[in-house]
């Protein structure tokens, strides 16, 4: 926005949607908002005050809801402009009213911050006006969150210096004196360009000249306030940059102290080091991983000692892999003298008698054949025995038991086929139509009697045609 330190600039005030119906939907800071709007409207700062509200049908306009709130009805010289859209600029006479009055800077207040105030501000900027949105003289029907969201949208889209407060606009006596001094200095610098007539004291001015002079001073006060805001904003940026530079210097200093590779190393001791012929490793951080970095920086160690000759092949305790070894007799531990031929017969062949045994049977030291002292177990226990140690004859008890069981086996009774209690019937059906259209159904039954005789029965059923 351009500077307001010029008497030709004329500020105006727009109050949006402050009807009883819309005001009833506000649930926070109602007294502060209505008081700030009244303070702005009653000050001599603005050349024009416009109240813009939604257009309603004629019958509804007679009720109290669409009318201006009671606290703002006592404002003198307030002009009313109806609007049909969210923006007070679209489809209304607001632009024409502002241009006729010569308004260049517009201050916006009222409701709602996130809808009507935002859209009106954007349209006024698009039409060449310089605007301010008074944050403590606006509110939103959706609550404080929507109000803050609307102010953030205005700041991001139209500029951070657009959103101001009532104190920023009206200021105090010190700001007014500073604005007057600033205006006098600027006028002294520009006397060669645009000389002005000497100012009259307020006591010698007419009412119209006195009012114009007061509005001019208010404009200068607003310009001084804006300049103060800009200086504070740039000072904050410079302070942030200085803080970042200071942090960077501290970081560089810490890097040098911790001996990170690539940083400049400054020894802490001033004593002259003694050359002992050994490589001295500078002190480094004991954290894990730094030693690996220092090892990478060191050059590889080259040994200058003469290499020893390799031992001869015979002196090694191993045989080389690429030399063929001689095969000694008997290396496979096989007795070639007593070896027997192996019969290559598959185990599934009935003529296979198994492998030939090459090892002799065990013998005792006297040269006699080894005979076990214990009798085999199958001679001790017979069929049905309890496992006692009394010897029995081979197969006597088993054969006698089998013959006894076979002799006492009862003879089986052979019987013929079971007789049937009822005849067995198999039935088949067939249907056909005669020349008159009657249905003829033929049923054939094949019957087997209980005594085994077979016979056939045929049944014919005539079903007349339906008329």
Automatic annotation (TrEMBL):
Region annotated Disordered, chain positions: 180-219, 264-283, 302-323, 447-467
Pfam annotation, one family: Isochorismatase
Coiled coil: none
Entry superkingdom: Eukaryota
UniProt biased composition (Basic and acidic residues): 185-219
Annotated Isochorismatase-like domain residues: 53-163
Protein name, UniProt field: Isochorismatase family protein
Species whose genome carries this gene: Nitzschia inconspicua
